[in-house]
Structure formats: C-alpha cells, structure tokens
Design a protein that fits this description.
Distance between the termini: 56 Å
Number of strands: 7
Strand content: 5-15%
Shape: globular
CATH superfamily of the largest domain: Intergrase catalytic core
Structural class: mainly alpha
CATH class of the largest domain: Mainly Alpha
Number of domains: 2
CATH architecture of the largest domain: Orthogonal Bundle
Strand order of the largest sheet: 3-4-5
Order of helices and strands: HEEHHHHHHEEHEHEEHHHH
CATH topology of the largest domain: hpI Integrase, Chain A
C-alpha cells in the first residue's frame, strides 16, 4: 500500500511535481486498461482507490493495510501539500436557470427536441437528479396531480443504494413548465409504461437511455447553446442547488429535493449561489 501511494501521489521535486511510478510500468497499466492515460493520478482518484481497497479488506475480514498509521499520515500530508499548491477538486460547471433556459431554447418540437426538453426539465426541477436516476426513471413511479403537475416517486437513488435512510420524502414534484414538457414528450412518444426517457433511432422510440447517454445529451445541448464550461450530467444537480441558493430557498427544503445526506456535501454549491446576494458584499454601494 505504501508503494502504491509513493508511486502515484505527486510530490514537489527539484524540477517540479514528480511521482515515482516507472514509465514502463505506467505504460503497462494503460495498455492493460487499468489507467486511462499515462501520467500521475489525481489525488482524489488515489483517495478513492484506497477507500475501495479498504472496503474490500473489511468485507473479506482481512487485515486492512489502508488503516495503517503510515498510510493515513501519507494521505494527510498529500492533502495538505495539494492545498498549499493551490489545487482544487475539479467540479462540473453548474447549470443554473440562465444556462438551462439557453439549453431549452435549442430544443425544437421534433421527437428528439421534445425528449431533450423533458429530460432537462425533469432532471433539474425534480431536485437535480443524477444521470443514473434520470436513466432509471419509470412510468410506474410517475403519477399526475391536478391539471398541470406530476409527482415522481424516486425509488432508485444513490442514497437508497447505500442503505441510508434519507431525511426526505421520495416524492419529487414536477410542476409548471417542467410538467408541460414531460407531458408533451410522453404524448408524442406514446409512452404509458416502462422507461420515461428513451433512445430515438430514425424517428422510432427505442429502449431506455443509458446513464452515459444522459450525460451526452446535456453536453450536446450546452454546445448547441454556445455555453462555455466543463458541463456534464452532474451540472444539473449542482446547478439546482446553486440556483436555489440564489433564490433564497432554505437549505432543508433543497436537501429534501436533492436527498443529500450531508450538509457539508451540499453547502458549497448552496453558498456559491448565495454569495452574490450577501449584503456584506455591498457596503460600498
């Protein structure tokens, strides 16, 4: 384990940042499909792999090298060094209301346009759903309420997979324009059972979208809208929280929609949304 950390964690050398992994071994890992490209791993990736290894040892009831004091000390020092170098975790650019409106404007009334409009509205308005949750959305969990709304029961989520009881209801409202977009797609596609969001091939409706396809749709619509940034499916989730912060929505209400379990994991996005409205920033006005 120590050798793994030494090989992959970058440290400051005389010529800049260096790692100890031999180039030949690095290339062999790439050739074997164990790495995406030659070069050092991000610190977040190293930490994630250590966590996976630790869980695997615990499940098999084996001595856990990941919990050795030397391993914890190395990781702790690596994190401090990373912060001192000014490195920050990479996050997808948030899709707030302004970006979402620009993306929706690129969606026409074709089947593809109707699907993408409904998908974007559903993913954002129902609490910033993850791409896996959007792909897994099913008609059996959708019910109509009133004349212009839906309630979607989120039976599949990362929180539920982890076996943790969320302090929220699984019922997510889809109202107003979002409900209209969803109704238009379901009507045009003739969907009354099964997956809500599906592939379209030569004008024909196919099986459910894959999570990766959801990310591709988001990226394509941001490109069509001429938006600049590093966008992905998670941009809808971070954008929902950021927009809620901008509009002054209470944090508990936001977390009830997103199903975040930890305040710490959501507060960064939330505070980012509120930052520009902080009255203390306008003392010279």
């Amino acid at each position: 384990m120590i050798q793994f950390l030494v090989d992959h964690i970058q440290r400051k050398g005389k010529t800049g940042l260096v790692s100890e992994l031999p180039p030949a071994l690095d290339q062999a890992l790439v050739s074997a499909g164990l790495k995406a490209k030659v070069g050092p791993l991000k610190l977040s990736t190293v930490v994630q792999r250590v966590a996976v290894l630790s869980t695997a040892h615990k499940l098999k009831r084996l001595p856990n090298p990941c919990e050795l004091p030397t391993v914890r000390t190395l990781l702790s020092r690596a994190r401090r060094a990373s912060v001192k170098r000014g490195e920050r975790p990479t996050k997808k650019t948030a899709i707030t209301r302004a970006e979402l409106e620009a993306m929706l404007a690129t969606c026409d009334d074709s089947l593809e346009g109707l699907r993408d409009r409904a998908l974007l509205c559903f993913g954002f308005a129902s609490g910033g759903r993850r791409r896996s949750e959007i792909a897994a959305a099913d008609m059996r969990d959708l019910r109509k309420v009133g004349d212009d709304g839906y309630i979607y029961r989120l039976e599949y989520s990362k929180t539920q997979q982890a076996g943790v009881k969320a302090d929220s209801t699984p019922d997510k409202p889809i109202l107003g324009r979002s409900a209209e977009a969803l109704a238009a797609w379901l009507g045009a596609a003739g969907i009354d059972e099964g997956a809500i969001f599906r592939r379209i091939w030569k004008g024909r409706i196919g099986p459910a979208l894959l999570p990766g396809s959801v990310a591709m749709i988001v990226k394509r619509r941001t490109k069509l809208a001429g938006l600049e940034g590093d966008f992905g499916a998670h941009s809808l989730r971070s954008g929902f929280v950021t927009e809620a912060g901008k509009q002054g929505v209470p944090l508990p209400a936001v977390m009830a929609m997103t199903e975040h379990r930890s305040v710490a994991s959501v507060i960064g996005y939330f505070q980012s949304g509120q930052a520009e409205d902080n009255p203390a920033a306008r003392l010279l006005r």
